[in-house]
Amino acid sequence: MKKLAVLTSGGDSPGMNACIRAVVRSSIYYGIEVIGVKRGYEGLIHKDFEVMDASSVGDIVHKGGTILKTARSKAFMTEEGRNQAIKHLKEEGIEGLIVIGGDGSFKGAAKLSEAGIATIGIPGTIDNDLAYTDYTIGFDTAVNTVLDSISKIRDTSTSHEKATIIEVMGRHCGDIAMYAGVAGGAEAIIIPEKPFSLPSIIEKMEHGRKRGKQHHIIILAEGSSKAEDLRQQLVDATGEDARISVLGFIQRGGDPSAFDRVLASRLGLKAVELLKEGEGKLALGVRQNQLVFEDIHEALSKEKSYDPELDRLAEILSI
Ligand code: ATP
User: Any idea which positions bind substrate (predicted)?
Assistant: First the structure.
């Protein structure tokens, strides 16, 4: 392998920069030329390439976002767009590509691999919605961002003695809600993977009130229901109002946590080493703190489910 390229695609996540840095520095370590592709697959189509060196990734390990920018590319969904991308990669003599992104980006990476460009997918999304890996880059930071908000909301919720519904991101995956809910001591955690019972949430709130509890935090994963709908259901059932806080894009930003920086760095080095060994069409991840990789289609075919142990823990501790 003489030359490889790296891009970030789909939604950005904290830790992508640490991963780009690891890819660039590891490539240089092995004497491989490395190209940064701007704006994900759009950059492949428009040949928006830049040669990276050790200093071009200086001072970014601690920063959120992605210095390569990211995009969702409609053109890359077409065969014509992909052919253009492949032509540009070949013209530049790029033999391997590292794609940092979510499941959609991985589908694109699989198509490039099938067209003869060795491609490795690194999971970069706050959602933690890829079943083949325990963690994705950015998830831990997003959970900590939500936790910070829970602590602040708890103060005001206690002062006003009102329940607050906090809506968090995660698309169809409830991991952000579950982890932040357990760590933040929420009274109820509502995730899309599991139906919820409003009467049991209300019962828990009433029980809590009787034992002197002054606040109620309900964490709602965005894929379950709209916060406004849930609020209305609570008002209809109890006659009491609840507050809503939709956290939104703050969950995508911020300095990456130590966990995300280390994970991103480990995955970046491993991706370069796999390409160097002639591998491709792989999804790279981590299971039980060991780096793992498997065929990208196989990785995508796995269905993500929630952790029943965490769910049980949340139930028991929120009595
Ligand atoms: P996130 O999980 O943060 O949303 P993602 O990688 O899943 O990230 P998507 O918008 O789904 O984000 O995908 C990123 C890009 O990957 C798309 O804009 C598109 O260019 C490409 N892509 C997605 N699906 C396919 C596909 N089936 N074939 C080819 N390319 C695809």
Answer: 125-127, 169-171, 222, 243
